[in-house]
Automatic annotation (TrEMBL):
Its main location: cytoplasm. It comes from Streptomyces nitrosporeus. CDD domains: AmyAc_GTHase, E_set_MTHase_like_N. This is Malto-oligosyltrehalose trehalohydrolase. NCBIfam families: trehalose_TreZ. The keyword Oxidoreductase does not apply. One of its GO terms (biological process) is trehalose biosynthetic process. It is found in: Cytoplasm. The keyword Transmembrane does not apply. The gene is treZ. Substrate binds at residues 242-247, 306-310, 378-383. Its EC number is 3.2.1.141. Gene3D superfamilies: E-set domains of sugar-utilizing enzymes, Glycosidases, Immunoglobulins. GO terms for cellular component: cytoplasm. Residues 98-498 form the Glycosyl hydrolase family 13 catalytic domain.
């Protein structure tokens, strides 16, 4: 077997295997690369010794059985026998479901999560969006401080466990998208700096030195990241990637890393004959993120739309702190702007940022499915002081309204695990750092951050306390009880409508129409021959809908959270408090 490693600063490199250490040779055709041949089979341990130092894991390790600091292990990618043929599934018409392996079940493993995938298929979900699964120190964590970007977290089940999960999902008709983090690596267990210039002080980020995308040595760093991304798609049969915080990728080169990645994914999709969408998380409100490369964009296939979330959240909760301030003055107007123009900040002033922000979307040319819409995500729950979901403060009726706006809206909808039954379990920030100093720094940093906003230190969950993770695990028995079972049935009904009615998957943003009353707190979205009306107020609302495209039409109720009659000849819809309805023109 050929072992190779990029270590341009090393004067000597040894390959360490079970048979001992042997010298590696410089590759005459690739500067900085070292190679050696050795006998090896699936599961065999190995590592590299640079200039007489300690044994280090392979930067391209496919498995870390003993965690990020241990030796690497050989993985035979052909050893797994795939059970289900799979032609892939694209984003148009998709319903995403964000899932964290470590808390989706109490066991926190791929196999335990796979056993629950039937629930998602029954719900009508099309794509499971996995939070990061790269190795990180300890057992439990969000995954955004991962290292070993080619490997799979061993406590979840390692490479074989991920393949079993994906295979099971495909057998149920579910595609699987994986969240990958290229903008930083965890501070603990990160051995990349020992091998080469993977990071640079040319740019600085909230996590310290930036990943080296444009400084000397960046060609190999970009190849490292690109190779990792494509390996997930090829070796694990994943159906796409979610790219974490792409706005934090410091990259001054003319051809950006994101363009390279998009081109690589498109080429692999053509080779494999199945779609491989890339979904960006970006706070730039820049349509160029998903504009095709031929038209001067980056060519990613979709992006999360936090503006839609913020408008919806303020409309539902009335919160106005932090970045919600920009949306809270007139939340229904903000919601109307996002569902018709995609971004609220499209060149407008942002009080949170103290400057103008964003760029307009050409709604006549940009399909709506390029934007992912949601009421809750891991970020928007877990980054709150107590990790409280909407269910902690909203009635089932208001949660149903949120579901109606997300699942009948123009964007690709996404749910966060447990949202579909109004899970009352929080989803809190938890870590399992093995370095005591780092653990204490994270603990105190969390308390300091929220203490500045008036929270008492003792009220902030300790990220290192195992109970914090345990509280965040879904309670599956809860889903069978009322009012949770009723809410779950509502989600299923809305998803079925989205699948059955072409108007609800129409990608034409320019055709979306809205009406609203800020004071009365009702909102109506028109999509083709359908109208979705929500009443967020605590009292019944009389909503003047007119009578359809022709004034003789009255409409027909397709789905309703609470009993409601179609509007009469006067075109007025009488909608109960905290409820919603989907109407079709007659």
């Amino acid at each position: 077997m050929l072992f190779e490693v990029w270590a341009p600063r090393a004067g000597s490199v040894l390959l360490k295997t079970a048979d001992g250490c042997r010298p590696m040779e410089c590759d005459p055709l690739r500067a900085g690369w070292w190679t050696a041949e050795a006998e090896a089979a699936d599961g065999d341990r190995y590592g590299f010794v640079l200039d007489g130092g300690p044994v280090l894991p392979d930067p391209r390790s496919r498995r870390q059985p003993d965690g990020p600091d241990g030796e690497s292990a050989v993985v035979d990618q052909e050893a797994y026998t795939w059970r289900h043929p799979w032609a892939g599934r694209g984003l148009p018409g998709a319903v995403l479901y964000e899932l964290h392996i470590g808390t989706f079940t109490g066991a926190g493993t791929f196999d335990a999560a796979a056993a629950r995938l039937g629930h998602l298929a029954d719900l009508g979900v099309t794509h499971v969006s996995l939070m990061p699964v790269c190795p990180f120190p300890g057992t439990h964590g969000w995954g955004y401080e991962g290292v070993s970007l080619w490997a799979v977290h061993e406590p979840y089940g390692g490479p074989a466990g991920l393949k079993r999960f994906v295979d099971t999902a495909h057998g149920l008709g579910l595609a699987v998208v994986l969240d990958v983090v290229h903008n930083h690596l965890g501070p603990s267990g990160n051995h990349l700096p020992s091998f080469g210039p993977y990071f640079t002080d040319t740019h600085h980020t909230p996590w310290g030195s930036a990943v080296n995308l444009d400084a000397p040595g960046s060609d190999e760093v970009r190849a490292f990241l690109l190779g990792s991304a494509l390996a997930w798609l090829r070796d694990y049969r994943l159906d796409g990637l979610r790219l974490d915080a792409v706005h934090a990728l410091a990259d001054g080169r003319a051809l950006t890393f994101l363009e390279e990645l998009a081109a690589g994914a498109d080429a692999l999709a053509a080779e494999l004959g199945r779609p491989l969408p890339l979904i960006a998380e970006s706070d730039l409100c820049d349509p160029r993120t998903t504009t095709p490369r031929a038209e001067g964009g980056l060519g990613l296939h979709a992006q999360w739309n936090d503006d839609f979330h913020h408008a919806l959240h303020t409309a539902l909760t009335g919160e106005s702190q932090g970045y919600y301030a920009d949306f809270a003055a007139a939340p229904l107007a903000a919601l109307a702007k996002t569902v018709t123009a995609a971004f609220f900040h499209n060149g407008t002033y942002s009080s949170f940022r103290g400057r103008r922000h964003g760029r307009p979307v050409d709604i006549t040319r940009t399909p709506a499915h390029r934007f992912v819409g949601y009421a809750q995500t891991h970020d928007q729950i877990g980054n709150r002081a107590l990790g409280d979901r909407l269910s902690a403060s909203l009635s089932p009726g208001l949660q149903a309204c949120a579901a109606a706006l997300v699942l009948t809206g123009p964007f690709t909808p996404m749910l966060f695990m447990g949202e579909e039954w109004g899970a009352r379990t929080p989803w809190q920030f938890f870590t399992d750092h093995t370095d005591p100093a780092l653990a204490e720094a994270v603990r105190e940093g969390r308390r300091r951050e929220f203490g500045a906003h008036g929270w008492a230190a003792e009220d902030i969950p300790d990220p290192q306390d195992p109970a914090t993770r345990d509280r965040s695990c879904l309670d599956w028995e809860e889903a069978e009880r009322e009012p949770h079972a009723g809410l779950r049935a509502w989600y299923r009904e809305l998803i079925a409508l989205r699948r059955a009615l072409p108007d609800l998957s129409d990608p034409d943003l320019a055709s979306v129409r809205t009406a609203y009353d800020e004071r009365a707190r009702w909102f109506v979205c028109r999509r083709g021959d359908l109208r979705i009306a929500v009443n967020l107020a605590g009292a019944a609302a009389a909503i003047p809908l007119g009578s359809g495209r022709h004034r003789s039409r009255t409409g027909r109720v397709l789905a309703a959270w609470a009993p409601v009659e179609a509007p009469g000849a006067d075109g007025v819809l009488h909608l109960p408090a905290e409820s919603c309805v989907v109407l079709a023109d007659e």
